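Private note to self, pasted from the team thread so I don't lose it. Backbone tokens:
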């Protein structure tokens, strides 16, 4: 029995080895080495960019807390954090490691852009889509290899990276960004999807995807813009608290520049938080504190930071906080407005369905953004920090669907009314033009006829006198000739001997 099990295990290992070898040979193409090198280069450029910024602040710092090794450690931590990797603070007051899961969204722009460009460059020389996919796989492999080294480098220290989180987030971000670049470079070919997905998508007409996407994008854009405006208003209304926070965090120029850089990197997060606040559910500042337009509940112990210093104190909402509800209302109007095409050719049912689907997609998109913008800042009271993705998604979908559907129907009626009115005015103008053209044509015809008759009468009435005299002489000569011919005939008959 043991021998049979050993033989079965050996066959299984041999089969797996053959499958791996076949997959390796299928992936090994002429573009493999350049693509792998491109992945390593993209990761190296990303790490280098973060290292330049951190080293600049370290150089200008009068009293750095660590040496060059510590500065490079922080740069690698920030690079991994930009991919969504959680960091862990070991040196805490309670002695319990505290996770840092809030990713500054602006930090992710640089590595994602590098991956997008690297994916496009790797897929450009490929002769087939299969070769392009193989090149992208090698690119991801090179990128992940460098990320693995960075994760090992930052696996110890006062602020270290979570290996499991890095293993989940970095390959996912690399695959999505590189695949998007390769797909765009190859002319956006058809992506093979599971049959179950096609059964759902085939029921949606191709002409409906554009209006729904446009409607959802408009709703998300208005919500984020409104959240950014609310953040700016809060900063303007609390300049003293913001400046005091800067002063308390650091007195040196390098420290204040570091705080400023982190604040700028968190502006997209603040816009998402502001959007969640305007929608109504607000956001959590720990497990026992919530901030929403209706008021702030709880008294959380927050870290000293300029963006957090502008948050309202505990208490009921005011007229100014309730005005934030105008943001989702405008987002609903934008969702309904962009759900209607210019010709307004769709029926009532299709127009309402477009607006409803656009609002639903807007809610899903905002929920994903909320998931990226929030995260824990500790293991105790700050374990829940930021807006809830489920509440934000539900509120965004509710606002945009409830307001967007009637807005779309009204916009459709207005556009069809304007089109009908314009067609009527064009038809009325054409009739007036036709009547004017007929009247002008008749007048021109009579004028031409009168002119032609006048010319003919003048030609007959005003003749040349010389021509009349010549004609009279010709008539007289002809009469004399006929008379002479008659007389000659008579004389011939009289003298004829016969």
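Design output:
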């Amino acid at each position: 029995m043991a021998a049979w099990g050993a033989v079965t295990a050996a066959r299984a290992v041999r089969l797996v080895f053959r499958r791996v070898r076949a997959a390796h040979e299928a992936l090994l193409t002429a573009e493999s080495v350049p693509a792998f090198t491109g992945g390593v280069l993209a990761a190296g450029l990303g790490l280098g960019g973060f290292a330049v910024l951190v080293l600049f602040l370290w150089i200008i710092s009068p009293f750095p807390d660590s040496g060059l090794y510590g500065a490079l450690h922080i740069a690698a931590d920030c690079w991994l954090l930009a991919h969504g990797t959680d960091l862990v603070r070991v040196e805490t007051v309670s002695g319990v490691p505290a996770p840092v899961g809030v990713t500054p969204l602006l930090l992710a722009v640089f590595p994602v852009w590098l991956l997008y460009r690297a994916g496009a460059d790797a897929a450009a020389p490929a002769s087939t889509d299969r070769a392009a996919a193989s090149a992208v796989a090698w690119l991801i492999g090179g990128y992940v290899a460098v990320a693995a080294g960075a994760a090992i480098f930052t696996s110890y220290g006062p602020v270290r990276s979570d290996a499991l989180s890095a293993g989940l987030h970095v390959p996912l971000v690399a695959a999505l960004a590189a695949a998007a670049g390769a797909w765009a470079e190859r002319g956006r070919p058809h992506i093979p999807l599971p049959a179950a997905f096609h059964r759902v998508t085939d029921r949606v007409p191709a002409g409906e995807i554009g209006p729904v996407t446009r409607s959802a994008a408009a709703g998300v854009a208005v919500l984020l813009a409104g959240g950014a405006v609310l953040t700016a208003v809060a900063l303007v209304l609390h300049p003293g608290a913001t400046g005091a926070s800067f002063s308390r965090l650091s007195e040196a120029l390098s420290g204040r520049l570091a705080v400023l850089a982190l604040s700028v990197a968190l502006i997209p997060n603040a816009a998402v938080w502001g959007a969640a606040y305007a929608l109504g559910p607000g956001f959590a500042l720990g497990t026992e504190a919530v901030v929403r337009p209706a008021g702030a509940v709880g008294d959380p112990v927050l870290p000293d930071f300029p963006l957090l210093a502008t948050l309202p104190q505990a208490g009921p909402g005011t007229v100014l906080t309730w005005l934030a509800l105008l943001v989702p209302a405008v987002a609903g109007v934008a969702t309904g407005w962009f759900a209607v095409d210019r010709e307004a050719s769709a029926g009532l049912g299709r127009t309402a369905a477009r607006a409803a689907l656009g609002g639903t997609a807007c809610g899903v998109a905002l929920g994903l953004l909320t998931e990226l913008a929030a995260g824990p800042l500790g293991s105790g009271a700050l374990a829940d920090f930021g807006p809830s993705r489920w509440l934000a998604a539900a509120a965004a979908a509710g606002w945009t669907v409830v307001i967007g559907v009637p807005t779309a129907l009204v916009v459709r009626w207005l556009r069809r009314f304007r089109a009908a009115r314009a067609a009527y005015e064009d038809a009325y103008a054409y009739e007036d033009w036709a009547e004017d053209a007929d009247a002008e044509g008749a007048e021109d015809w009579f004028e031409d006829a009168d002119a032609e008759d006048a010319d003919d009468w003048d030609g007959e009435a005003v003749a040349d006198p010389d021509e009349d005299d010549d004609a009279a002489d010709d008539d007289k000569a002809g009469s004399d000739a006929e008379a002479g011919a008659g007389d000659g005939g008579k004389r011939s008959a009289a003298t004829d001997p016969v």
